[in-house]
Design brief:
- By secondary structure, this protein is mainly alpha-helical.
- It has a domain of about 130 residues: Four Helix Bundle (Hemerythrin (Met), subunit A).
- About 55% of the residues lie in helices and about 5% in strands.
- The chain is built from eight helices and two strands, in the order H-H-E-H-H-H-H-H-E-H.
- The chain has a two-stranded parallel ribbon.
- Helix 5 runs antiparallel to helix 6.
- The N terminus and C terminus are likely disordered.
- It binds heme C.
- This is Cytochrome c.
- It holds the Pfam family Cytochrom_C_2.
- It comes from Polyangium spumosum.
- One of its GO terms (molecular function) is electron transfer activity.
Length: about 200
């Protein structure tokens, strides 16, 4: 999903932190730690009809009011990961923009180039696993997104514009499906370590 190395990217986002962050995070994991998830995970229990953050761990702030209204499942992330995820998300949208602009002028090489930025790769798979390490099910959805994006590039290689557009439609459905299900939840280092050492490693729900 997120961390594919994108040589053609115009966003100029930082890349170096990721390796360092992964080393820090994985290096700091304590496999023996098996505490339960924190109570801030209110997504499943929050009443959709109520806007009040009654079950929040930190009631009374504007942020908690928003969090209480947003009943999507949380994806716990360290601040740097959350920031990087959002940078990548914005770049995903730029890639979609570039696909559409290129397709409109039958520039299939341009479609393929833009689509490959959101397609599958080994590095992307590793990064998706990292992002979903504390949110079982998230990584599966992320990988399905990238595999669907691969079909845009495949259609472009065949020079088939109709197939490009329908593959892009299916890809966007994976974007919106994930957005409907998940929200970011920024956590500190100790919470991250606790969550990642208690979550199932493969990310199945
Ligand atoms: C596997 C899940 C997943 C997929 C697939 C996904 N996103 Fe996201 N996206 C997220 C999450 C989680 C957020 C943060 C949402 C929140 O906390 O409100 C987000 C946020 C965003 C944002 C807001 C960024 C910001 O600066 O706040 C944009 C734009 C976005 N995604 C675009 C896309 C596009 C375009 C696609 C598909 C081409 C896509 N995303 C696919 C999970 C996903």
């Amino acid at each position: 999903m997120i961390m594919k190395s994108t040589n053609g990217s115009k966003s100029g986002r930082p890349r170096g932190w990721l390796t360092a962050g992964a080393v820090l995070v994985f290096g700091g994991l304590l496999p023996a730690c098996r505490e339960p998830a924190p109570t801030h995970d209110t997504a499943a229990s929050a009443a959709p009809s109520s806007a009040a953050p009654s079950s929040s761990a930190r009631p009374g702030t504007a942020f908690d009011a928003l969090d209480g209204m947003d009943v999507r499942k949380p994806v716990p992330l360290l601040p740097m990961m959350a920031n990087h995820q959002k940078q990548n998300m914005r770049d995903h949208l730029v890639a979609v923009q570039e696909i559409i602009v290129a397709a409109a002028s039958n520039d299939f090489a341009g479609v393929e180039r833009a689509a490959s930025r959101i397609g599958s790769s080994e590095q992307m798979g590793r990064m998706c696993s990292h992002m979903g390490a504390a949110a079982p099910g998230f990584t599966d959805q992320a990988l399905a997104f990238h595999r669907t994006a691969d079909t845009v590039a495949e259609a472009a290689r065949k020079g088939d514009k109709d197939a490009v557009m329908s593959a892009l439609g299916r890809t966007l459905a994976t974007c919106t499906g994930c957005h409907a299900a998940w929200k970011q939840q920024v956590v500190d280092e100790s919470t991250w370590q606790r969550l990642t050492s208690s979550a199932p490693p493969t990310g199945h729900r």
